[in-house]
Predict the structure.
Amino acid sequence: MFAAWGSRAVVAQLTTFAATVRLDLGLDWRVLGFISGVSAIATILFAVAPAWGVSRLSPMEALKEHGRSSSFERRGSIRQATVVIQVALSLTLVVAAGLFTRTFFALATRDAGFTRGGLLLVNANVDRNPVAGLERSALFERLGDAARSVPGVSAAVVSFTTPIARAGMNTMIAVPPGSALSQRERMTWVNVLSPGWFGTFGVRLSAGRDFDSRDRPGSPGVAIVNRTFERRFFGGRPALGATFTTVGPSPGSGHPVYEVVGVVEDAVYRSLRAPMEPTVYLPLRQWDGPPSVATIAVGAAAGSWSGVAKDVAAAIAKEDPTAVLSFRSLDEQINAALTQERLVAALAAFFGILGLVLSAVGLYGVTAYAVVSRRAEIGIRMALGASTDGVVRLMLRRIAWLVGWGVLLGACLSAWASTFVRTLLYGLEPRDPVTFAGSALVLAAVAAFAAWLPARRAARIDPMTVLRDW
C-alpha cells in the first residue's frame, strides 16, 4: 500500500528541495577555554624543552668548537621525533582531504540517469484551492499547460517529486508465494507525472511508450517501470505488457493492478549516494488523491529559463490565483543536495593544505638548524673537494630518513582513522591505494622543496671563511 502522506507532511517534504547543513558558529566559552589551555601548555612545554637541553650541556663541551657538529646528532632526538610526528599527522590530513575531495567529485560527476541542467523547477502549492481528488490532478495539468503556453518555453511537465528532491513515496509489490525477496526488497519508489516528463528530464525510454491521452480516469491502470524494477520483479522476462500488483488498496490511483506500458533506463530518485532503486511511474490523470503540492519542470527553448520565469509565474497565477509558487533551478537543487559533501571536502582540503604548510615549515627549520650546526663540517668537506651536489645530498639524507619514517607512521595512522569515515565516502574504499600513494607523493615533494632551500644555501658556504673562523 502506498505510504500515507498527511497534507502537512507532504507540503514539508515537497517544499524542501534539499537538506540544509546548519553550523552553529556561536562562541563557546568551554571550547575557547580548552584551546587556550592547550595553547598555553604547548607554548610552555616547547619553550622549556630547549632551555632544559642547554642546561644539561657541560661547560667543556660547550667550549669545544667541534661540539657544534656533534650536538645536533646527540641532542636532536626529540626534535627529530617531533618532525616525524608532524609529518605523520600531516599525511593523515592530506589523505583525509584526498578521500573527501574525491568523494565530492565522484558524486558531482555521477551519471544520475537524467539531464542535470537547463530546467526551472516551479513548486506549486494549491492548498488554498478547494478542489480535490481527480479535479486537483486536472488542476495541476492545467497549471502545466499554462506554463507551456508561455513564449520561449519548450516544455512544462508536472510531477509529485523531482530527482534528488529528498521527497517521495513508496509502495510494496506483491510477489508469488515462496519468493526469495524480503519485505524490504519488495518496496519500490513511486512518482506520479504528466506525459513528456521523461523527455524533459532526459530519461531514456528503452521499451514501450510514454503516458498519453489513453491513460485517463476510468481506463485500466498503467505504469512505466525502470530497469531495476524489471530485473528485480520480472527476472529475465521483459516487463513490457506484463502486470504487477501492489499490496493492499491503492487510495491514490484506485488501481491495485497495473499494466506495464513502458520501461525506462534507471535514474536516481532521492539521493546521489543511493544506488539505482526500483521505481514505478504512474500517470497524473489517473491519480485521484494528489497532495496539495506538485512541481512543474519548465524548459526554455533558448536553453535558458531566466528570461521566462516571470512570465511563467504570471501564467500560472492567471490559471489559479491561489497557488503559492517558489522557484529553483535543477542545478541549484543538485548543488544543495551536495552541500554537506562540498563543505566536508573544503574543510578537509583546508586542513590538508595547513598540514603541508606546517610540515614544510618544520622541515625547513630542522634543515636550517642542521646547516648552522654542521657549518664547520660542511666547510671542511668543501675544502677537501666535496661538490655542491654532494653537500646538498648530505643535508637531505637525514631529512629523507625523517620523512620516510613520518610517511610510514602516517600511513598506518591514516589506515586506522579512515575506517571511521567509511559512511561519508562514495565510490572508493577508506584505504584507497591511489589516494594514499598520491598523498604520500605530494607530502614528499613539499618536504623535499622545504628542505632543499636551506640545503642549497649550505652548498654556497665559503670554505675559506669557515676555516678562518674555525
